[in-house]
Amino acid sequence: MxxxxxxxxxxxxxxxxxxxxxxxxxxxxxxxxxxxxxxxAANGVGLAAPQVGKGVRLAVVDxxxxxxxxxNPVIVAREGTAVDVEGCLSIxxxxxxxxxxxxxxxxxxxxxxxxxxxxxxxxxxxxxQHEIDHLDGILIVDRATRLFxxxxxxxxxxxxxxxxxxxxxxxxxxxx
Length: 176
Ligand SMILES: [Zn+2]
Hints:
Number of strands: 7
Helix content: 10-25%
Bound molecules: zinc ion
Largest sheet: 7 strands, antiparallel
CATH class: Alpha Beta
Number of domains: 1
Order of helices and strands: HEEEEEHHEEH
């Protein structure tokens, strides 16, 4: 296993929709293990393949209840809405308030290529929706109702959260 480089916004790979996995090969299983190691090393709760430069529909999630590896994840049911704060390993120092479904049911394939289903609420539901968005090239900057940047200030021990304009961030993306 190896820690991979996390691609940072505005890397265009983050905007490319990922391709479905036709078969969980050994190479893809190794990629999934590397992604888990990369996520843990960065203290994240989820990571999607485009974030390590791979355009395949693969994500890993661990909100503290164990690692879930998902190939071709699809949200098959959603219920309610919840707004909470989110960060993204590809967009450091930015936090966003994002409205998500409060509960989701996700179907995916596991490391052995077997179908499974997760019913989730709370942080797990949020993390699953965040990672599946990555597979479609959608980022928290697109969904945010409010965006904040952590800034170091002289005389302050903790970074200060400064509200920023979405357009300010989106301008960093170069038109293709
Ligand atoms: Zn993210």
